[in-house]
From TrEMBL:
Signal peptide: none annotated. This is ATP-dependent DNA helicase. GO terms for biological process: DNA recombination; DNA repair; telomere maintenance. It holds the Pfam family Pif1_2B_dom. Belongs to the helicase family. Its cofactor is Mg(2+). SUPFAM superfamilies: P-loop containing nucleoside triphosphate hydrolases (SSF52540). It catalyses: ATP + H2O = ADP + phosphate + H(+). PANTHER family: ATP-DEPENDENT DNA HELICASE, PTHR10492.
Length: 436
């Protein structure tokens, strides 16, 4: 069990002592600006944490431990620290070993990497040299900077005997599908006659959304290739996700919820193939309120429908937050962007991506001639941005990197451009919790 509160002094005197001695962070902050954790006036470990009545998880799956405001305090260097400054600990471990021990909850499969990281990294090390200042000896700089990497005795033995470095139970193997004849499945002999060799295999996804791709195939071909047409399908146990989480978050009114439920049902019926508007079960009539009427300028109509009064409102973050146009292809995105960018007033700025031909990667000397910049710039690749991007102040942009998650700069964060510089762009966050 991992705890982040000071133990009761009467009930658990040993635990109390160990937490007081080893697991209290700080004092740092204004009380101790010279604390090693301090950088630019802030504690890099984010202490003191907030009081919290219940352990819960943040959006990334990291635990936020219970730290109740109990009034319990411990004295550290004449500063009284409370539950907000406790480094999460396991009481049995710190009492038994009488030491500072960091514990981490691996509730997330991706946290497991830390197990391997710490096993393989070796202990911290320092090289200390003591010199006499009276008799200056010759300095061997190479020797001074030799980084003494080593393998500890236990690890060395472990490797010499070729013991397993890791082991997983039950075994989970990700099987790529859609790749014909490329799936290796290992069957245990005694279960070879059972489907999938008796192994538990999980297939995930929504068949309404993800259909197999049969080049030039008919509807029947596609259906025939889908998982539910397999002779193994009767052996599957189906688990469904049925609850619409958007309706549970409490922010929607009853009438809105009813509207979404109706839409939701309609959408599911289409997916299940149980809703058709004609006798041949071939066509679906889309309600007029979610349709855009045909016009001579379809792109203009879409922009008008999704962004009404764009020119008056485009600088309003709420207006931008609530809207987005999704398109199946990037080409369409560029066309929409160009059109909207031209509508918005003000001087734009065009930014180019780096476009040098890498000298080191090819052995010939005339790659510049073979691949002129103009040609390279005309290429469009999925997953790689185009050579140029045009921006204006007030236009929304989306960040595509996890730059600083604690500051809310993540892949998918939406921002509005506030300044366009030569080498940098300033922008304000308009989505998620770090707005502004
Ligand atoms: Zn600190």
């Amino acid at each position: 069990m991992i705890t982040a509160e000071i133990p009761d002094m009467e009930l658990y005197p040993d635990g109390y002592k160990a937490v007081k001695n080893y697991m209290m962070h700080g004092p740092c902050g204004d009380l101790n600006p010279g604390c090693p954790c301090m950088k630019q006036g802030k504690c890099t470990k984010h202490f003191p944490k907030k009081f919290n009545n219940q352990t819960n998880f943040d959006a990334d799956g990291f635990p936020i431990y219970r730290r109740r405001n109990t009034g319990t305090k411990v004295d550290k260097n004449n500063v009284f620290l409370d539950n907000r400054n406790v480094v999460p600990y396991n009481r049995n471990l710190i009492v038994k070993f009488d030491a500072h021990i960091n514990v981490e909850l691996c509730n997330y499969s991706r946290s497991v990497k830390y197990l391997f990281k710490y096993v393989n990294k070796g202990s911290n090390r320092a090289t200390i040299g003591i010199e006499c200042s009276d008799t200056p000896t010759e300095r061997d700089e190479i020797k001074r900077y030799l980084d003494c990497r080593y393998i500890s005795t236990t690890e060395a033995c472990w490797r010499i005997f070729s013991f397993d470095i890791h082991h997983r139970q039950p075994e989970v193997e990700r099987l790529p599908f859609h790749l014909q004849g490329e799936n290796t499945i290992v069957f245990q002999e005694e279960s070879a006659d059972k489907p999938f060799g008796g192994l538990t295999i999980i297939f995930g996804g929504d068949f309404r959304q993800i259909l197999p791709v049969i080049p030039k195939g008919t509807r029947a071909d596609i259906l025939d290739a889908s998982l539910n047409s397999s002779c193994l399908w009767p052996f599957f146990k189906i688990y469904e996700l049925k609850q619409n989480m958007r309706l549970c978050c409490g922010r929607v009114s009853d009438s809105e919820a009813a509207e979404v439920t109706t839409f939701d049902k309609w959408l599911l019926q289409i997916g299940d193939g149980s809703f058709y508007s004609d006798v041949d079960n071939d066509l679906i009539k889309v309600p007029t309120d979610i349709c855009i009427m045909p016009s001579n300028d379809p792109i203009g109509s879409i922009i008008d429908a999704v962004y009404p009064s764009l020119l008056q409102k485009y600088s309003d973050p709420t207006y931008l937050q609530e809207r987005a146009i999704l398109t199946p292809k990037n080409e369409m995105v560029h066309e929409l962007n160009d059109k909207i960018m031209k509508m918005i007033q003000g001087e734009g700025r065009t930014y180019f991506s780096s476009d040098n031909v890498c000298k080191a990667s090819v052995n010939t000397n005339d790659e510049d001639l073979l691949y002129p910049k103009e040609f390279l710039n005309s290429l469009r690749f999925p997953g790689i941005p185009n050579i140029e991007v045009q921006l204006k102040v007030g236009t929304p942009v989306i960040l595509l990197r996890n730059q600083n998650q604690s500051e809310g700069l993540c892949n998918g964060t939406r921002l509005v451009v506030t300044h366009l510089g030569n080498w940098s762009i300033s922008a304000n966050i308009i989505s998620e919790k770090n707005i502004g």
